Structure formats: structure tokens, C-alpha cells
């Protein structure tokens, strides 16, 4: 695998660290931001291989950011996977309707995370 960069968007430093560690162990480069607003900006600037997006964040939430990134012609081709503790079926359906290609519910194992990322981006 070429060194692919994944943008991790999570306002929890702990969750972000867990995700970035799992991705680094699988050979991915990571960028990490703690807000949806920063994710929208960085997606345009860096055009990562994929985005792992939390939902519950202050300000713009992950659903709103997913919709903005998905609807922007400059970033529409970046696959977004929601990674959230929101586990209701309605949350998953809503995330996919905003433009996400997948949904992972916290807690997850590093293997589940990496397998889902590979399945949805390769």
C-alpha cells in the first residue's frame, strides 16, 4: 500500500490518539483535527485518502461537516466514514444520507477500524 493519509476528526484527544495509533500501525499517515470546521478546511488543503469523522463536536457537528465536504466539488471524492458513539439506526442512516460511505460505532477494535477503512476505500 502506498502511504495514504487519513484525516481523523474528533474533539476527544483520547479517541483521536486511539484512532491515529491504529492507523499508523496499519501503515497509514494521519492528520488529526478537533473540530469539524478545521476538517472542512484541511480536506480542501490536503485532500486526504479518506476522512474518519466523529459526530458529536462543539460548533459544526460531524453530520454537517460530512454534508459540506461531500457537496463541495473540490472534496466530494474523498470517502468519509463516520466514527461515533451514536449507535441508533436513524443516526447511521442519516450519516449515510449526508454523504458518508460507512459508519463505525464506538467502541471498536483497531482491527475493525482498519478493516472497515480498507473495505470502503480500496
Highlighted features:
single chain, 122 residues, alpha/beta, five-stranded parallel sheet, 5 helices, 45% helix
Number of helices: 5
Q: Strand content of the residues, in percent?
A: 15-25%
Major sheet size, sense and barrel closure = 5 strands, parallel
Provide the helix percentage. Answer: 40-55%
Class based on secondary structure composition and strand pairing: alpha/beta
Mean pLDDT rating: 95
Order of helices and strands: EHEHEHEHEH
- Estimated radius of gyration: 13 Å
Tell me the overall shape. globular
Alpha-carbon distance between the two ends: 10 Å
Side by side, the strands of the main sheet go 2-1-3-4-5
- How many beta strands in the DSSP annotation? 5
Flag low-confidence runs: none
What's a concise summary of this model?
The protein is of the alpha/beta class. The protein is 45% helix and 19% strand. Helix 4 links the parallel strand 4 (80-84) and strand 5.
Walk me through this protein's architecture.
- The protein has 122 residues and is an alpha/beta fold.
- The chain has five helices and five strands; from the N terminus they run βαβαβαβαβα.
- It has helices spanning 13-25, 36-46, 62-71, 89-97, 110-121; strands spanning 5-9, 29-33, 50-53, 80-84, 102-105.
- Strands 2-1-3-4-5 form a five-stranded parallel beta sheet, with helices on both faces.
- The longest helix has 13 residues, at 13-25.
- The protein is globular, with a radius of gyration of 13 Å.
- The termini are close together.
